[in-house]
Amino acid sequence: MLLALLAVLAAADAGTDIAPPDVNEFVARVNRPVALTAPGMDRVRVRANQPYGPGDERHRFDAYLPAQTKTRAPVVLLVHGGLSDDVPFRPKDWGIYRSWGRLLAASGFVAIAFNHRLGFPDPRLDQANQDVAAMLETVRTQAKALQADPQRIALVAFSAGGPLLTPFLREPAPGVRCLAGFYPFLDLRPSKIHQQFLDAAALARHSPAAQLRNPTAQAMPFFLARAGQDAIPDILPGIDAFVAESLAAGTPLTLLNHPRAPHGFDPDPDSRTHEVLVGFLAFLRTHLQPA
Fold first, then answer.
1. Which residues pair with 78 in a beta bridge?
2. Predicted confidence (pLDDT) at residue 202 exceeds the cutoff of 60
3. Architecture of the 6-29+40-287 domain
4. Rounded to an integer, what distance in angstroms lies between the CA atom of residue 278 and that of residue 273?
């Protein structure tokens, strides 16, 4: 979610030396809980450290299940951002994703927090896309054990995870009903960091903004949370390009702008953050209700 403290990119673009982030600061930041609670978060059932895909330590997930349900619940996949290989511990174990999992499960969803291979600075997008597909397949094959409805799935991507939503705008995927992005990269074509690793064709292929003329994109509900004070280079131009293209293409976009918020604002306890988070849950309930 925090792009492995990608705020240092501004210095990187200037060619300056960057000291590695302080481990204690990193841990404190990623362990801040999401700034919204719901009754029953303490009663959520957790199936921790489950294998998916290849099943190695890089391919593990935690499932957060509602405390009680008589029917199968819709599924929300939490797609983290890019990481360097030396982070102290992987995203599914961060406090922010644990709190997201409990919030969503207490709100009636099966939440899946999973590790994948999206990297930094090399994004390794093809590998990460394979992992997202493998995680979806695991949700489908284990739907009964997870008490999940594989016909009602949402993916929500954070930060550099935004490009991993691209395949679902390009062509239909079984059960995927809606998509969401929190302060995400949505257009890689102007992104200097991505230009170092991808050619022009690949930048377009992995950019959600480049897909919005497709019929699948024009039918896919999309929730977008924009951080108005985002300091990560090239994120805001990409988001704004996505919004402009979405309006031109007539796609079903729900945009909530948090004009004063920095990147990674979901733990910040202010009224607009609360409004964005409540709006996001309402969006999920609307688009993941039974057919």
1. 113, 156
2. yes
3. 3-Layer(aba) Sandwich (3.40)
4. 9
pLDDT at 21: 56
Tens of pLDDT, residue by residue over 45-76, are 999 999 999 989 889 999 999 998 789 999 99
- Tokens coding 121: 């600075």
Instruction: Give me the residue spans of the domains in the chain.
Output: 6-29+40-287
Asked if residue 15 has pLDDT above 60, the reply is: no
**CB contact at 8 A, 143 and 249:** no
Ramachandran angles phi, psi of 176, nearest 5° = -80, 115
The secondary structure of the chain, three-state, reads: CCCCCHHHHHHHHCCCCCCCCCHHHHHHHHCCCCCCCCCCHHHCEEEEEEECCCCCCCCEEEEEECCCCCCCEEEEEEECCCECCCCCCCHHHCHHHHHHHHHHHHCCCEEEEECCCCECCCCCHHHHHHHHHHHHHHHHHCHHHHCEEEEEEEEEEEHHHHHHHHHHHHCCCCCEEEEEEECCCCCCCCCHHHHCCCCHHHHHHCCHHHHCCCHHHHHCCEEEEEECCCCCCCHHHHHHHHHHHHHHHCCCEEEEEECCCCCCCCCCCCHHHHHHHHHHHHHHHHHCCCC
